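Each lists sequence, tokenised fold; shown next:
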Amino acid sequence: MLALCGILAFHPAASGDDPKWVDLRPSGSAPPIPGLYECIWKLKEVGFERGRANECLRDLLSTGYFEEGAITLDASEVNNAGIVFNLRAKRLLVTGLQLKVDERYEMELRQWLGADDRVLRKRDVYERSRENVTATAIELFFKAKGVLAGVTVHTDLSYSLAKAELIFEVTLGSPIPSQSVPPPYGPDCAQHVGGPDWSDFDDRVPRALVGKLVILRPGFMCFSNEKLQRDLKVLRETNIFEQVDGFLVSLDDGKQLSLRLRGRPLIVRAVSVQGYGSVRGQPILPGELPLKPGMLYSQSMVSKIAEKLARDASQEGLRIVVKEDVQLVSGQEVQVEFHVLGYAADNIVVDGRKVN
């Protein structure tokens, strides 16, 4: 039997408790169908009128996906009240869970996933949030390995049979600088700081090259002054920077590492494009790119080319990731490569119907 509870009475004229926001807080195996919850988000546009909210709740319960629903007023913050849709969905048991990954990594990846209790396993109750945690954990594994990877999740949910089957498919791309990862996948550290903040680089600085040279790079960064001094020394020794500085900045939520780099002119010796996954073998001629051998390196131009390559390669049902790679081939010359990875978008089927 479905349970329906109305919204708590609220009085806009009383102490500023008129709702200013709306939120969805599901439990159980809530179906990942964005359009299903459209009436909730429309309340932002049409106003938080009690009758509309209750009508939306009744419509959601009539879909058959939910066993219980209630709307409550959250006035825990002064002058920032909101209404919350609390929906309890039917519970689906995970009866099938597969990893489709290069066999070189499969055993180690399974051990990696086993370290996190939040990751979905067979016989668990399906939750979209845990599916996302699992996909993120797989991405972190390959970042730690120094490999660009795309994760496609194939989700098949049956509410009539109360079961869920999932396949996590991994498409491998190019080598990338490895990243440190947070617990439980990697060790904790005595001083974890945010960043690094690379906003204070001028246009001559090749960010991809900096990312390969330093060890305090994006990711879960365990800071020490020894590591910072090592990075600054390595950057100065390349002799391609006019200024190299690094320091910690205090923020409200902790500290952040900031780098300040000013580059010297670098000449582009060669430009190339390499495709991986779904775009492997597609012809992309370097001569068609605005960056050509003999020109001066410009990070803004390189970034714009990467964005254009992603747009040009995009198509329905496909995700595109473009990574830049810059190699120092002589004192003041660099080789620029663009690595384009294409992989399938997530595929969701609910009761035999594909979800867009």
